[in-house]
Amino acid sequence: MTTVETFDILKLTDEARNVVLDALSAEGDGDTMGLYVEVTGTRGAGYAYDLYFSELSEAPEGSAIGVDGGVSIVIPQKSIERLRGSRLEFATEGGGGLVLVNPNIPTSEELNPGVPADILSIGLEGPTATFAISVLEQHVNPSIASHGGRADLVALDEDKKIAYIKMSGGCQGCSMSRLTLTQGIEATLRDAIPELTEVIDVTDHASGVNPFYSEES
């Protein structure tokens, strides 16, 4: 295990460092523990994180391990580049807490797992895509938010006028997702954009929170 004193992946502000040091001092064996920081997925348009204390000796192979003002930091290998240049701050709003400020953003593939790369490569450039996004935000998502659902445009073929939609939250894997698409999302988009020729669901329903979706239903 190699520890570096100059850690350029993640830095702590003075306030955040004091909070972490206080928490470590409350641990019975704080001297042998480190602050683990890792990316666990995506949330919205950014990354989701997990911060926790664990023994330094348990750091997975390939982890980056450094020291910032007496705080040992461990970043698992898969999170290193996703966190490079980040800063851990202490925010006083909302009762106070640690906040990770990350200059890195998820790739399109990370934000849309399971969506074929050739569809993502179509992109969202063009006036029809811009308008379709506004229709989803103003008219579709408010109505399905009550069920914990959300619909996002991941690509729009401006030439063929085909919209590719990804559903998430309560709509991902739901047995009613096909009905939601055809009678809700597609109908709304077609009313607003009559030139649309097709609305295609590219959601990975198999990994959704509702296990009732099937291609045969």
What does this structure look like?
With 217 residues, this protein is α/β, with parallel strands linked by helices. It folds into two domains: 10-105, Hypothetical Protein Aq_1857, Chain: A (Sandwich), CATH 2.60.300; 110-207, Fe-S cluster assembly (FSCA) (GMP Synthetase, Chain A, domain 3, 2-Layer Sandwich). Helix content is 27%, strand content 30%. The chain has helices at residues 14-25, 80-83, 108-111, 117-120, 127-144, 177-192, and strands spanning 10-12, 33-43, 46-55, 64-68, 71-75, 86-91, 97-101, 149-157, 162-169, 198-201. The strands form three sheets. A four-stranded mixed sheet has the order 3-2-5-4. A three-stranded mixed sheet has the order 1-6-7. A three-stranded mixed sheet has the order 8-9-10, covered by helices on one side. Helix 5 packs across helix 6. Residues 171-177 and 210-217 have low confidence and may be disordered.
Short account of what is shown:
The protein is of the alpha/beta class and 217 residues long. The chain has two domains: 10-105, HesB-like domain (Hypothetical Protein Aq_1857, Chain: A), CATH 2.60.300.12; 110-207, Fe-S cluster assembly (FSCA) (GMP Synthetase, Chain A, domain 3). The protein is 27% helix and 30% strand.
Task: Give descriptors for this structure.
disordered C terminus, 2 domains, three-stranded mixed β-sheet, single chain, alpha/beta, four-stranded mixed β-sheet, 217 residues, Hypothetical Protein Aq_1857, Chain: A, GMP Synthetase, Chain A, domain 3
